[in-house]
Amino acid sequence: MPRLGPALAGAVICVSSVASAADHAPNVFRLENGELPTTPLKPFGPMDKLQYYGGRVISNVKVVAVAWGSGVDSMYMGKLGGFYTTVTKSRFMDWMSEYDTLGKMGLVDNLLGSEQHIGRGSYVGLSTITPINQKKAITDQEIQDELIAQLKANALPQPSVDKGGNVDSIYMIDFPAGISISLVNITSCNQFGAYHFTLTYNGMSVPYGVHPNCGYGFNTSTIIHSHELAEAMTDMEVGLIETNTVVKSARPLAWVTVAPTAWESAENGDLCEGTSATIDGYVVQKIWSNFANGCVAEIPICDGVMKPPACRPCNKYDSGNACNGANPACAIGGAKQGQCVPCTTDYQDGCRETLKPVCDDPNYTCVGCLTNKDCAGASPVCDLATKTCKPCSSDKDCASPNVCDVSGDDFAGHCVRCNFDVQCGPGDNKCIDHSCVTPPPPPPPDGGFPEAGFDPGSEGPVTAGCGCSLITSSTPARGAIGAAVALAFLIRRRRSRRE
């Protein structure tokens, strides 16, 4: 087995610097005379950049780490889970939106592609399976059969899909030492260190990664896993066409280079073999960027000083992701178009937890208000000079039919329905606590208690159940009771308004 250094990145690793057609694949990682390459494999011309052939990518990757049996080191898998958790939500992912397929047509057939945006992903968790296949030498087809059996038995999480019905789960399998894996006619830890492929399950294209145990250190392992992750995200269905050694690249391949055959094309990880960088404490392989025309682990967003391709303009998907901290929004237009700013009208999250909850879009600043609709309560008026909410000072500050309460009571400065009875309509002609209400009916002319059948505490009559007199006291007493009931009604209406 050749010496493996810290920069090992992993698709298929060939021991010969001149591989035969049978040893080649879109995700080949070549060795140079048995050693790791020291420089990236760079494209040689415009057509050697990645081209889109119409296949699926992975929108928001959901990584399922799979341990092939209990023999896989649990401590290693735990550290690998930390790597997946971090890298799927990092700057390593943000710039790959350049490989979106939105509005893209296939290079060969000129038909519409998969219509997907590539964004940040997540780590689902670790699943340790008990393989049905206990052989020490297995083929890729046997790995596919095992995965399908485990999925059918619900020993693995079922594939999730994006809004277009495209699978966005990937099953990244790590194997224990002592298991040899063959892909076509090449073998693990001899001619390859890892690869990603595709199987068909319940009519869906499902990506997976194969990571044999070749004794790599952890940093080398994260380089390998990042390589395969980036390639799978941008060429998800490679396994459905990869062994084609005759026909040129075509759908369902996604982003690969132009080559004489599909078997000889290269993916974005292949073009940057031998490179590495550190993202949030983890070592990753750099990945080919058509935009930057080079190998990158991240591409900073332009800030008005840096110029492309050293930086990239942000897009709407960067808001809250690549754009964060004090500038969490991407300016889609205006003087700072393509830069991260404090807020936009489309992304005001940066303002919502402050005392200035509204975005002044032309200036990308958080303010108290822009119109009266942004204000309420004790400060219902927007001062356009200071862009802050303030109390009303006159009726013209309030939208009709409301008026301004300038009485100095608990509602002073509020826009209210009324201050005086004359501001209410003919039906609700009484202003109580700044609300127009219908007054209670007056007591009988003689000041006595209402006739049986009338409940002074309700909006209408009730059935008394008999025609007898309920009160036998003198008329003055009945008049006093009637007045007290009317007063109680007014007090209750006042309390209801205050509540």
Structure characterization notes:
By secondary structure, the protein is of the alpha/beta class. The protein folds into four domains: 12-294, no CATH class; 316-367, no CATH class; 371-439, no CATH class; 445-464 and 472-499, no CATH class. The protein is 15% helix and 19% strand. It has helices at 74-87, 91-94, 140-152, 218-234, 349-352, 475-498; strands at 12-14, 28-30, 51-52, 62-68, 122-129, 137-139, 169-174, 180-183, 186-187, 195-201, 204-211, 255-256, 277-279, 282-284, 287-289, 294-296, 329-330, 340-341, 358-360, 365-367, 381-383, 388-390, 403-404, 415-416, 430-432, 435-437. The protein has a five-stranded mixed sheet, with helices on both faces. Mean pLDDT is 83; it is low at 1-23, 30-35, 457-486 and 493-499.
Label the structural class. Answer: alpha/beta
**Contiguous uncertain segments of 5+ residues:** 1-23, 30-35, 457-486, 493-499
Question: What is the averaged pLDDT score?
Answer: 83
Kindly provide the radius of gyration, computed on alpha-carbon positions and rounded to a whole number of angstroms: 36 Å
Number of strands: 26
SSE order and pairing:
Blueprint: E1 12-14, E2 28-30, E3 51-52, E4 62-68, H1 74-87, H2 91-94, E5 122-129, E6 137-139, H3 140-152, E7 169-174, E8 180-183, E9 186-187, E10 195-201, E11 204-211, H4 218-234, E12 255-256, E13 277-279, E14 282-284, E15 287-289, E16 294-296, E17 329-330, E18 340-341, H5 349-352, E19 358-360, E20 365-367, E21 381-383, E22 388-390, E23 403-404, E24 415-416, E25 430-432, E26 435-437, H6 475-498
Parallel strand pairs: 1-2, 4-5, 4-7, 6-8, 7-11
Antiparallel strand pairs: 3-12, 8-9, 10-11, 13-14, 15-16, 17-18, 19-20, 21-22, 23-24, 25-26
